[in-house]
Q: What sequence folds into this?
């Protein structure tokens, strides 16, 4: 249940409206909990990490941290930020410096998401080989459902100018599109983070979510999926199965297929055995 605290009437009637606006109102707003505030954290929001890939503007990192904190998220991971730590990031974070201080900086996307069983990537763009698409609200429900057991999950955001690259989107189970003006659909990075976090915050407070059906059989972690893809591609290459221009597209389609299927750990073992069978030298 969302709680709406009652505003106490603390304004003396003799105060003129203008004085109320300029002196009392700011004080009142400062001293009163925000109208829609909630307890600081919800368990499952703690397991959802926001991953920014190659953020170029430190201001966006700060604004993203602030966006996260307002919505009770705290896990920020930066992959190859152009400049971090930075004064500008601190400035834009305002009161969310703690999120910046705790942010993890990594060189490789795998280090940011490897331990996750669910990874979603935010992109406004249609990237040819389509992923299963979620809007931000559906994405929030899925993330919360799947992290209820305590497993970490990640939401990835791309770099400001070019967005999420295909090879990063390939590592995601779903693509998230924030519905927007179809002629102008690209949001500022921190605004996109804000909207996704807002949906998570709202969903966390909603009725208990139905857990995904697959919960009894956990999907493999991202690093196990990556290990399998590499094995499969080596096996296919040994047979010269994918060649020339089509190789890249073929690999992408295979990755998306298995990314969608979300094989469990047991199924991944089976798929490794199949890859060994395909491999010319049985490796
Ligand atoms: N010019 C880039 C957009 C970069 S905006 C492009 O065309 O892809 C920075 C990031 O914000 C994007 O990589 C994406 O992760 C997120 N983002 C912005 N608008 C979005 C939208 N409408 N839906 C989903 N993600 C969005």
A:
């Amino acid at each position: 249940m969302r709680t709406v605290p009652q505003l106490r009437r603390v304004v003396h009637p003799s105060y003129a409206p203008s004085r109320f606006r300029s002196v009392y109102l700011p004080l009142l707003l400062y001293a009163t909990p925000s109208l829609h505030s909630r307890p600081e954290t919800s368990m499952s929001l703690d397991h959802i990490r926001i991953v920014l890939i190659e953020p170029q503007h430190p201001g966006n990192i700060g604004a993203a941290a602030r966006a996260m904190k307002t919505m009770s998220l705290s896990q920020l991971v930066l992959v190859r930020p152009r400049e971090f730590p930075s004064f500008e990031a601190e400035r834009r974070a305002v009161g969310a410096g703690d999120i910046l201080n705790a942010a993890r900086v990594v060189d490789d996307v795998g280090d940011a998401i490897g331990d996750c069983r669910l990874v979603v990537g935010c992109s406004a763009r249609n990237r040819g080989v389509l992923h299963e698409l979620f809007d931000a609200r559906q994405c929030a429900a899925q993330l919360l459902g799947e992290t209820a057991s305590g497993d970490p999950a990640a939401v990835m955001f791309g770099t400001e100018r070019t967005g999420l690259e295909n090879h990063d989107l390939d590592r995601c189970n779903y693509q998230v599109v924030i519905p927007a003006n179809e002629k102008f659909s690209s949001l500022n990075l921190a605004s996109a983070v804000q909207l996704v976090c807002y949906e998570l915050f709202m969903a966390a407070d909603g009725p208990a979510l139905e857990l995904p059906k697959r919960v009894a059989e956990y999907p493999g972690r991202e690093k196990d999926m990556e290990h399998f893809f590499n094995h499969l591609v080596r096996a296919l290459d040994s047979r010269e199965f994918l060649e020339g221009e089509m190789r890249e597209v073929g690999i992408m389609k295979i990755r998306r297929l298995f990314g969608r299927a979300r094989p469990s750990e047991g199924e991944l073992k089976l798929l490794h055995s199949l890859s060994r069978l395909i491999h010319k030298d049985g490796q």
About this structure: The two ends are 55 Å apart (CA to CA).
